[in-house]
Structures are given as structure tokens and as C-alpha cells.
Design goal:
The structure is a single chain. By secondary structure, the protein is an alpha/beta fold. A 5-stranded parallel sheet has the order 2-3-4-1-5, sandwiched between helices. Strands 6-7-8-9 form a 4-stranded mixed sheet, with helices on both faces. The longest helix has 19 residues.
Length: 312
């Protein structure tokens, strides 16, 4: 289950929303998971692509002129989709074409995520006064709709107060690695443009490592700052995040990697050495690790699947 990001502070929230340059973020202030799911499904930025996707799966999508005609068309379309085994489309048909209220909003939300795939708009749940309620809601949504990018907002005071409160240990363990605070996100992007770029890059490395450890598909596969028995310059070659079993090297690039030509050339030489050692190399910006963590983790998981297949 992809874990939702916890965005601590307005600056982090704005950065997260701005990172989705190809999709409009759906905002919901609903305190309950079911209500947030219904708001998402009712949003125009979700309904439009759903209508197009479902219309392509129905042999003769038509606009019925009367409620009776609409009912006949919907019943026939549902039967056709069930016969084809397309249960997700069948579940969403009434909500999309007849504005029906889904009986199980979370189930319908999961179906919408699978139908839209990588084009699913992200959902941002506004934390409000009760961060505990909001976090429990996004966890429930994440369990139901694994394909939809998800985050919850809160303030620094409420977030730290929730962490310090008693109980909810499972929820805290689940979301803590995915919390992005202003000092890590907004300041990290700025620090990556200053002389302490190494510190910013290290914070991004730790964030990505913890995210990979939190996911059962990559838990235990990666080592942070692994050194190979190979010289690179005067020192042993070090990999930011290494997966020895799949021969995957993940490198995190701070701003200085592109600010100086020598640094850029050094990274290219390092890539060549890693390739000679039979490592598949992936590079990500530190800024992207912070603001687009889900996408980075998804890319790494795809590479892990590819490399596992290559071994056979």
C-alpha cells in the first residue's frame, strides 16, 4: 500500500501541489474518508477523464433524453461490462453518467484510480483542527485506492503534538517516514543552492531510504552509502543507495552537481565505473525526492521488477 505524504506547513503543501505540473490536485476538507472519496469522485477534473475512459469501454455511449432511457442504457451497459469482466467500469458507470451516489465510496475511489491509472489526479486532504482524524482518513483512503497520489496537510504544532500524544503507534510508524516538514522541503530546496548542498542531499537520501524501507516491495533491499571494493579517485566508490541483489545504484543529485562542470563530469565518470561493475544506475534530483517522493519510489520499484526479470 503506498503511504500518503504528510505535508507539514503551507510552504510544503504549495511545493507538493506545484510538483504536479501535469495534473490538477483535488482538495478535500472532509473529515471522513468516505466523504473525501465522494468529493474526489464528484470533482470535474476527475469526472471528465473518467467519462472519457468509460465511454471508450462502452460500445455505444449515448446521452439518453429521458430518465427511463438513461436507466435502460445504464442497465444494458452494466450488463455488458460485467460480461466483459470489467467490474471497475461497471461500478463507476452510474456515478459518472447518472450522478448516482456510490454506496461504497472508498471502493468506487479504488476503481477510479485503477481506471485512470497514472493519470489519476492527486488528492489532498486538508488536515483541519484534528490531525488524528485526517491522518486516519488518508490511511483508509490509501488502503482503498492505491493508484491515487495522496497527501494530508497539517501545521508543525499539530503534527508534533500528534506524534507526542499517546496511542496510534501503528499509524505513526506508517506515516512518520513520509512526513515532509518545511525545514526538509522548502529549506532543503534552498539549501541545495547554497554551500551546504551535501547536507541537503544527505537529508534527501535518508528520506528516500526510509520510504523504500517502509514499502514491503523494497524493504531490506537497499543499503545507504554502500562502499564498493573499487577505487574512485583516492577513495572507495560510494553509492548513495545500493541494492546489491539487483545490482541497482540510486544516486541523489544536489544543485551543485549541475552548477560546476567538474562536478558534472565526475558524476558521468562515476556512472561509467558503476556500469563496469554491472550496476544499473538511476539518478534523481534531491528536490524531486522531497517534493515528488511517490514518483521517485515508483520509478525505483519499476526498475527493481525489470532487473529481477533480467536475472532469469
Amino acid at each position: 500500500m503506498p503511504v500518503p505524504a504528510v505535508l507539514v506547513g503551507e510552504a510544503v503543501t504549495r511545493a507538493w501541489e506545484a510538483s504536479w505540473i501535469d495534473r490538477t490536485v483535488v482538495r478535500s476538507a472532509a473529515p471522513a474518508a468516505e466523504d473525501a472519496a465522494r468529493e474526489y469522485l464528484a470533482s470535474s477534473v476527475v469526472r471528465a477523464p473518467l467519462e472519457a475512459a468509460l465511454g471508450a469501454r462502452i460500445s455505444a455511449p449515448t446521452r439518453a433524453r429521458t430518465p427511463f432511457e438513461r436507466g435502460v442504457w445504464l442497465a444494458a451497459s452494466r450488463d455488458a461490462l460485467i460480461a466483459a469482466g470489467d467490474l471497475d467500469a461497471q461500478l463507476l458507470l452510474g456515478a459518472v453518467f447518472a450522478s448516482e451516489r456510490p454506496a461504497d465510496a472508498l471502493r468506487a475511489l479504488g476503481a477510479a484510480g485503477r481506471v485512470l491509472g497514472r493519470g489519476a489526479p492527486p488528492l489532498l486532504v486538508l488536515g483541519g483542527d484534528d490531525v488524528d482524524v485526517a491522518i486516519r482518513a488518508v490511511i483508509a483512503i490509501a488502503e482503498a485506492a492505491t493508484a491515487i497520489p495522496l497527501a494530508v496537510t497539517t501545521t508543525a504544532a499539530r503534527w508534533r503534538g500528534w506524534l507526542a500524544s499517546s496511542g496510534r503507534e501503528h499509524a505513526k510508524a506508517m506515516v512518520r517516514p513520509f512526513a515532509v516538514e518545511a525545514v526538509e522541503a522548502g529549506a532543503l530546496a534552498e539549501r541545495a543552492r547554497e554551500e551546504d548542498d551535501d547536507e541537503a542531499r544527505s537529508a534527501a537520501e535518508r528520506m528516500l531510504f526510509e520510504a523504500l524501507e517502509a514499502d514491503e516491495r523494497s524493504r531490506g533491499l537497499f543499503e545507504l552509502n554502500r562502499c564498493l571494493d573499487v577505487k574512485f579517485g583516492a577513495r572507495a566508490l560510494e553509492i548513495d543507495l545500493a541494492c546489491p541483489s539487483r545490482r541497482l545504484a540510486v544516486e541523489i543529485d544536489g544543485y551543485f552537481h549541475f552548477r560546476e562542470l567538474d562536478g558534472y563530469r565526475r558524476d558521468r565518470r562515476k556512472d561509467v565505473v558503476l556500469q563496469r561493475e554491472r550496476y544499473f544506475v538511476m539518478r534523481f534530483l534531491a528536490d524531486d525526492v522531497v517534493t515528488r517522493l511517490d514518483e521517485v519510489v515508483a520509478e525505483i520499484h519499476r526498475a527493481l521488477v525489470f532487473l529481477e526479470r533480467e536475472k532469469t
